[in-house]
Amino acid sequence: MDNGWMNSERETTPGEEMNSRDLKKVTISEESPVFEIWNINKLGFGIPQKPLVEASFRVAYRIAKSKKPHTIGETLIKPCALEMVELVCGLEQRKKLEAIPLSNDVIQSRIVEISCNILKQIINELKASPFPFSMQLDETTDISNCSQLLVFVRYVSADTIKEEFLFCEPLLQTTKAVDVLAILNVFFSKHDFDWKQKLHSLCTDGAPAMLGNKSGFAHLVKKEAPNVIVTHCFLHRHALATKTLPTSLIDVLSIVIKTVNFIRSRALNHRLFKTLCQEMNAEHEGPDTTIMDASEKLQAFLSKMSVWKIRIQNGI
């Protein structure tokens, strides 16, 4: 070999493996154009083929989308795929699939890369959009008692209105409005985006830290962007609307709420009511329909409750 980029006591042919003694004595110049290819091949690491990398990305995407643990790729998906391919296509095709990297660390890194790529696309679309965007914030506490700030954006991209999840960042200390504003400023500064100049509307919950007249987050934003429109989230608006309903509607709503709470309070009540609906061929027990969709369904619900009450009283 050329001594200009390799220094060893003996030369090795391209097809010959190097032992540990030879490996310790090898010195390669990083400026050499063949440094990366030679180093990867001689150390036993082949250059990954594009289909193998793309396959691992696709599997990682589906694992993340289905909210499954990262280890499922190596412990379940890959063994099943290998067995199916061997039975259907043969042993040679199985050997090709064995080269697909699906370890826990690989899946984790693939998911991180996919997430970073999606975030980059959203930021680029926000910058390229000729129209202002809207933003919704929510501060919540997870199971580890850590406050998390969730941010969603709605914007126009290529004549299409998009609504995307932007980021989630922990509030490590206090959850004041200044802390929320600081996280937003750091995030958008990192991506070189002047969000206050392009923000049109802001949606938050009814927490004092968000809507306080003097130190709330909305007030701090309006100081620097006076034209921003501040609104409540839809759940907060619904809660406010229920307080101003007419008496007749409040009576009906209170009965429905008490009934639902009674059914949901105990697992036995829920199982009995579910069985009753199945026996009566209920049409409104699907996940995409609600009782208040139409008056006919409401009447059906009330009639079933009457039958159920009679059954409970009779001990059936």
From TrEMBL:
Start-end of Basic and acidic residues biased regions: 8-23
Region (Disordered): 1-23
Protein name: Protein ZBED8
Name of the gene this protein is made from: ZBED8
